[in-house]
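Checklist before submission:
- one chain only
- standard amino acids only
- sequence pasted in full

Submission:
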Amino acid sequence: MKLASRINRLSESLTIAISTRAKELKASGKDVIIFSAGEPDFDTAEAAKDAVIEAMAKGCGKYTPIPGTAEILNAVALKLKRDNGLDYKPSQIITNVGAKHSLFNIFSCLIDDGDEVIVPAPFWVTYPEIVKFCGGKPVIIDTKPENKYKITADELKAAITPRTKALSLCSPSNPAGAVYSKDELVAIAEVLKGTDIAVIADEIYEKIIFDKEFVACASISEDMFNRTITVNGLSKCGAMPGWRFGYTACANDELNKAMKKLQSQSTSNISSIVQAGAVAVLEGKADEYIAMMNKEYQKRRDYAVDAINAIEGLSVVKPDGAFYLFINCAKVEKDSMKFCTKLLDEALVATVPGVGFGMDEHFRISYACSMDEIKEGIARIAEFVKNYK
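Returned file contents:
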């Protein structure tokens, strides 16, 4: 059987591959510390569970409209207005099977063969892979630690060509926890003014933010509102990764129509039960729980940053959001795949090589785990680095 050539454009996700191997080792009885998974260690808020139970008792298991029920679309629109000052109509919102599905819909409807998408590195592993699958060309721009791994307006301007179709922007970011300020977004908006370049704003970590105020990309100006496709969901901030709830908000009716058409022939509506649970969280019924999680993440971040920077040979820029540390290991080992493989085999600590995020000489750890695991895992990393050969 001959496979379609487009599937060979994709690489396997390093994050999933390493997490799978770590879980297999753990299942075999090994004492593995798993720093590789990108999901909260907290359970989903009771408000979401209660809403699902109530909806199921009322018989909510039928098909819904492709974009979602009126209740969920209104809840997303109200959330975007309340939290971000964005005026989206329910008709401009589509719910998806997680934000990864949102991104797949966007790129599939936007990118033609040869179109370029600017992707700042370090990037979430899936961005360039989806672009390549859709026939596009990811244009990778290496960011600098002194800029907290954020693309600058000048770097963006230098990367634009006549083939540039979109800019992929993630704030707070995976893997570096970078958060774009209003001034930084205004400068980016100024560069894009007068172009037809779309901005795909992945804001899935919006509420996991510590030292800065979150600013939605689409809120910068009317021009940015019209060119931005906002991507968000509840996997991270709502501790609902397995629920698979994401959404897009887009002012471009032509793109919305295209994405609805694509989804009508792929997943159709997302789970009706998930929609019911998501409404409760979007309406703010889990806000106290989310604030509690955020406070705990900040404690973990502060400890982990100090502990990593105390290890000779390693360094990390303190992130302003998300729940990751993107650690420079160049003084120990420039090959991040080699470093992370040995770390898992010899110290039983699962991390993710920076090469998967477009920046070798780094590795990522997630502090979405208990403080005890963080302390033990970093202690193992310190001992491993001390004796590295």
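Reviewer check: The radius of gyration is 21 Å.
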